[in-house]
Every structure is written in structure tokens, then in C-alpha cells.
Amino acid sequence: MTDLPDGIQRREFDGRTRLATRGEPVYGEPTDGEWRCWDAGRSKLGAMLESGMDIDLTGDEGVLYLGAASGTTVSHVADFAGPTYAVEFAPRPMGDLLDVAEARNNLFPLLKDARKPETYSHVVESDLDLLVQDVATRGQASVAVDNARFLADDSQLLLAIKARSEDVTADPETVFDSVCDELTEAYEIIDRQRLEPSHDDHLGVVARKR
Ligand SMILES: C[S@@+](CC[C@H](N)C(=O)[O-])C[C@H]1O[C@@H](n2cnc3c(N)ncnc32)[C@H](O)[C@@H]1O
């Protein structure tokens, strides 16, 4: 069961109850006053929260977000959480991400490679509460394990695993099992759930740092 902080609400948009955060709109999402709809169809973390996975959020978390792209999901995270470091290695979406950060003084975009945490360890604080990861790259488990260095003990990992980024031909369940096995080097898995129908061949994982 998901524990939602005050900064995330369930509200009605177009006759459907959906998640929402308070902040400047980013991707043309529907709004209701200062609340903006968090579109689970465009956000794996949104889908994980909407499906009621075993996630525990308080709203004052320090966050490291890996794979921020243009800021669709990390904008919602920065709306409800504390300092949010957003790592993205592609220069193209970084321009959009900088615009998103303009309206959020707790969002810090970093043009860095998530496979090389040593290149941003001088900027990102230590003892963070939450690692959110959505990087379309091979070696998703080792990225999460290598970045555990920024987390306090017992903090949370919210991970979306994309099967095809590991192996386009393998059965997704086999890929998910192997990534989850590798994660246990640094984390205890609390919950795992496929993200269909909104995100094909993706697994949502909730874990705690050991
Ligand atoms: C599926 S998109 C992320 C979407 C985003 N999380 C959202 O929901 O708004 C995956 C992103 O991971 C980025 N990425 C892939 N490998 C990376 C790496 N090694 N370091 C940083 N970013 C990476 C890609 O450039 C891409 O923007």
C-alpha cells in the first residue's frame, strides 16, 4: 500500500481520479487550480504510485533521480520532495530539464553519466532518503548498486527496469529476475510489479538499502 505525503493528492481530472502534485505545468498535463495531473501513462513512477505498490513517502525526502530526460517525472518529484538531484546524460533533453528547474528551486539538473557516480559525488549530498531510477541503459542493477553510496541506511530505491535495455531478445521475466538478484548486493526487495498496460515490458521495484 502506498503512503502518500501531503504534496501528492488523488484528484478528479476529466471524470477520473488521478494523482496530482502542486507546481508549474510541464508537459501539457491537465490542471486544477495549482494542482497538476501526474500522468501515469507518461511516468513509470506515476504508474508505480497509482497501482498501490508498497512505497513509503513523507514529502521531505532528499532525492537522487537517475534518467531525468526532459523532466516529466522528476518535476513531480521536486513538487512534493526536498532537494532533488536530477542526472541525465543526453544533452538534448537537458535544455528542457533546465527550463523545468527554473520554476523549482529545489531541483538541480546534472549533465552526467549515471554509470559514473564519482563524477557527481562532489555535488550530490550524502545520506539521501530516496533513489529514483529510470535509465534506459544496459546494467540497470549495477547503476542502482553503484549509486547506493548516496543513500542513508534504510532509505528507499524506486526503480523502473526496462527489459529491452538489458536484452532485446530475452524473456522479460528472466531479465527482471536477474536484475533483482543483482540488486540484492545493496538492497532488500520490498515489492515488484509489472507496469503494464501503461509501460510494456517494464518492472517496478521498491527496495530498501541494506
Ligand atoms: C525512459 S527515459 C526517462 C524518462 C524520465 N524518467 C521521465 O519519466 O520523465 C530514460 C532516460 O535515461 C537516460 N539515460 C540512459 N542512460 C543513462 C546514463 N548512463 N546516465 C544518465 N542518463 C541516462 C536517457 O538519455 C533517457 O533520457
UniProtKB/TrEMBL annotation:
Any Pfam family hit: Fibrillarin
Sorted UniProt keywords: Methyltransferase, RNA-binding, rRNA processing, Transferase, tRNA processing
EC number: 2.1.1.-
Binding site for S-adenosyl-L-methionine: 72-73, 88-89, 113-114, 134-137
Record-level Gene Ontology MF annotations: histone H2AQ104 methyltransferase activity; RNA binding; rRNA methyltransferase activity
One GO term of the biological process aspect: tRNA processing
Self-association and partners: Interacts with nop5. Component of box C/D small ribonucleoprotein (sRNP) particles that contain rpl7ae, FlpA and nop5, plus a guide RNA.
HAMAP family linked to this entry: RNA_methyltransf_FlpA
NCBIfam families: PRK04266.1-2, PRK04266.1-4
Family membership noted in the UniProt record: Belongs to the methyltransferase superfamily. Fibrillarin family.
Known function: Involved in pre-rRNA and tRNA processing. Utilizes the methyl donor S-adenosyl-L-methionine to catalyze the site-specific 2'-hydroxyl methylation of ribose moieties in rRNA and tRNA. Site specificity is provided by a guide RNA that base pairs with the substrate. Methylation occurs at a characteristic distance from the sequence involved in base pairing with the guide RNA.
Annotated protein name in UniProt: Fibrillarin-like rRNA/tRNA 2'-O-methyltransferase
Gene from which the chain derives: flpA
